Amino acid sequence: MKKILVIIVLTVFVIASLWYAFLYFATYSEGYRSGELIKFSSKGYVVKTWEGEISQGISGAQIFSFSVMDSNEDVVQKLNEYQGKYVKVRYEEKYGTFFFWGDTTYFITEVVLEKSPHFGRE
């Protein structure tokens, strides 16, 4: 009986580890988005995650929601600095996420300040 229980526990652990590795390393899509950074904040009760939004139109009708992993400190610092400005971000879309990574499946890996095509300003 103990042998069966050990096999079941090990099987569950291996499957969970493989699922975690798949979600962490596998990328569904990647690309660039640009727009005005209208929101960037740390949110959550127990586990804080970095969440943000980029407005991709003048009216604000197209909103791109994204997350940033805590390990990406340079991106977090730049996004905090560029609040309210026009930015271009590189993202990776994952197949899924965990509650301690973020609310969305879009994760920002790079950010640069751009000139706004709408107003001729940053």
| Number of contiguous helices | 2
Q: What is the annotated CATH architecture?
A: Beta Barrel
Overall pLDDT level: 90
Assigned CATH class:
Mainly Beta
Low-confidence stretches: none
Order of strands, main sheet, comes to: 3-2-1-4-5
Number of E-type strands: 5
Binned strand content: 35-45%
The shape is elongated
Task: Return the CATH topology.
Answer: OB fold (Dihydrolipoamide Acetyltransferase, E2P)
Helix content: 25-40%
CATH superfamily: Nucleic acid-binding proteins
Multimeric state:
single chain
Structural class: alpha+beta
| Radius of gyration, taken over Cα atoms and rounded to an integer in Å | 18 Å
Report the end-to-end length measured between terminal Cα atoms.
67 Å
Largest sheet: 5 strands, antiparallel
Taken together, the total number of domains comes to 1
Give the topology string: H per helix, E per strand: HEEEHEE
